[in-house]
Each structure stands twice: as C-alpha cells, then as structure tokens.
Amino acid sequence: MTPSFSSTVHHGPIRRARPRRTLLMAAAATLTGALLAAGCAPSNSDSASTGTAAGAGGSAGGSGGGAASADGPVTLTVWSWRVEDTAAYRKIFDAYQSKNPGVTVNFKAFKATEYNQILATGLSGSDGPDVPQVRSYGQLQATLAAKSLVPLDDTLDLKGWDPTIVASAKGKADGKLYAVPFAQQSVQLYYNQDVFSANGIKPPTTWKEFQDACAKLKQAGVTPLAIGGKDDWTLPIVHEAVAASRFGGKEFAAAAASGKKNFTDPNWTASIQTVADLKQYMPDGVTGVPLTDAVTLFATGKAAIFPGGSYDLAMLKAANPDLKLGVFQMPVVDGSPAGATPTTAGWADGNFGVNAKSKNVAAAKKLVKWMSTKEFGQLVVDEIKQVSAVPGVTFSDPVMKQMSDFYAKNPSPYFLLTDFRYGTPSGGELFTKGMVNVLLGKQSPAQVGTDMDKGLAAWFKPQQ
User: How confident is the model at residue 71 (pLDDT cuts 50, 70, 90)?
Assistant: First the structure.
C-alpha cells in the first residue's frame, strides 16, 4: 500500500536531501512485509492464532525427527518466529554442523503473530521442536508454568552478561534459568544524515539544541519526528527514546519495581507531558498514522528523526539502501531529576530453550550451550544483523556499534516490559492506552499515572 502524505507532511519551502523519485514506491512495497515480520518489536499484545510453517520443508513437528540411536546421527529441530531470518539461521547452523559431525539442525520459522499458539501446541505434544525460540520476561512464564522447558542452570554459564538480559530467560517463581537470550534490543533516535546536513543541523547534545533542530526542520517543511501512532505499541518506545531522562531512567525503574515509587510520581507524569509537547513535531494526526507511513517518510527524506529500536535497523536499510543513517541519544530533558544523564533502554526479546519432551535433550542442550558462545554471538551480528546478547562481539556496521556503545555506557531497562509484563493488564498496555488519550487530548498525564497504578494493582507485587 502506497501511503498518502497529504496529512503527514508539512508544506512550505523544503530544504532537504533529494531522494530518488523511485524510493517512495520501493519503500512502500518493502515496508509492509518487513513490518509484519518484525518479530523483535516489543508488542504489548500477548495474543496469537494458529498458522502455517515457513522455512524448512516438512511438517510442523520436529522433536527427535530423523534421530537414530544415541550413538548415531541426530536431527535437531529449531523453531522460531523470525521468518525473515531463515536464510541467516541456516547459514549459522551450517557452522555448527561443520564442527559437530552427525548432527543436523533443521530450522523452521513461523509467522510472528501466529507463533505463540503454534509453539504452545507443539510443546504440549510429542512433535514439537527440540530447541524452541521462546518469548522473554512475562511472556515466558506461561511456557514455564506448563513445564515445557528444561532448566539450564547446569548447562549455561552467563556470568558477565547483562543482568537485565539474563532476567528475560528466568522463571519468576523459581529463579531458574531456562534459556539463552539471542539478542539485545535497545531504543534510540535514528536520524537521516543527509536531511540534517541539508538543513545545517548536527545531532543535538542539549535539550535546547533538540528543540531548536525540530523547529528548524518544521520551518523547512520537513517532519521532524517520524512516528506512526496508529500502531500504538510503538508509543512506549517513543516515550523511552525521548523522555527516559525526564522520569529518571534506571533509578526510577528500580524504585517502581521495588514499590518505592509509583506511576503518579510527578517525574513520570512529566515525562508523558514531554511526549505530548513534542506532538507539534510529529506527523499531523499522529494517532492515525500507520507505522509504514512513518518509516516511508523517514526513508524518503520527508522526515528527519525516527525514534525506534535496534531491531528497526535492517528494516530501515531495506526501505532505502542508500539511506545514510546515524543514531543519537536524547539529551537530558529540562526539568529531569538531579544527576540525570542521557540513557539507552534495553531488553532481550527472545531466547532459545530445550523442549522437556525432546527425544534428544543432551544434544539440544549442547546446541543451546553453543548459542551462548562468542562464535554464535558474532554470527548473530554478522548474519542476522542484530546486536548479540553475548558479551565481547565486534561490529563492522558503525550504526550497530554506536547503538551497542550507547547501551554499554549508560544502560537502563525497558522496564514496562522487563518488570511490568508479568500480569494482566500489563504496564505497557496501560501506558499505551493512556498515551494515545493524551495525544488526542482526552486525558491528562496525571490521569494516565493514576490509571496505571489502579490497573497494575490487580497483580503487581513489589520486588523485595
């Protein structure tokens, strides 16, 4: 679907880098499929429906498929929701097979929106995968409650890993480790280097510089912030990208998780107001703008800044291979708590575990253990184009390296996901609904905070 720009572009004298005329149609054609497949985006929805397999041929089932005796050849089936990474994973598992004669790894991918139900069905029977890719944090707990995974504390040594990332693979009730995280996601602001250059703008280092840059871009007819609020799950990401310093970053996250602060805290509500104040720099009618339109605006040079996740990098490059991308952290917002610094929120959005009903548990454990090594981590970086969760990997892509460096320097958890998605309604769902209402002028930030506390009271218990 080719997006219409009649309501999303500021008209007037435009000073921007000229993309090729063909980019608009090419970007639109690429984006719909890319966005539907973007399974690493932290959607607030926990629902799923049945669907069909994609990837390697054969039936959906795979536990023990092709296995001979314990001393003979073994076939391990790996399931994932990352359809777009099928070729990359096959290349990665070729590397494993070359060093493990007699082992065949059969990778199968399913539509991300249908994967949860497909996996639940597979793990409940005898024909599920040996090594399933599983969700993280709160979304992992139902799988653990069904006793579908093997504990891996005796298999994996994740000392030295980021604790926020490791927590994604643990049971909330027992604290045991059940999987290995495959990638580290983070939030930042992408910018179009050509658009910045054409308008005499550099990545801002102060809040005033950021505001001045947005005002200058808008005056020049360029949409400063490419945001698609119709896909409302993006709004918590936007909030983290632009307002984390205003609510206090990791310090507030820790206080909220421990119950020392709640979501009526004035710094939290002020951070929601920060997003609302930037509405003037978003596409007109932002809550009705699809994410595909926002990405196309950015990819074609009609918008300058895209608040997004590290998982968006490959998609943005696919939308316009000639796009000169850069990233920056939002400078500290005026009024932020004392000592606030620019921060980058991060999380793990997927893990690999071992099916408790696998006929090849030992071989599956060995494969998952390999997934915790630097060799596998480097292949994730090089082939899947994601920031690996494994410490010590290197990056040839300068944007990927910059994102990793930002997170390493001053990390904070994307805590609506890491701490407030263990019950219903989730923190992300409550925030998203409230943020939409604020942008529509139907609620105040203070009302959003009150509603979040009321909704979370149904299940949230502060960490001790």
Answer: low
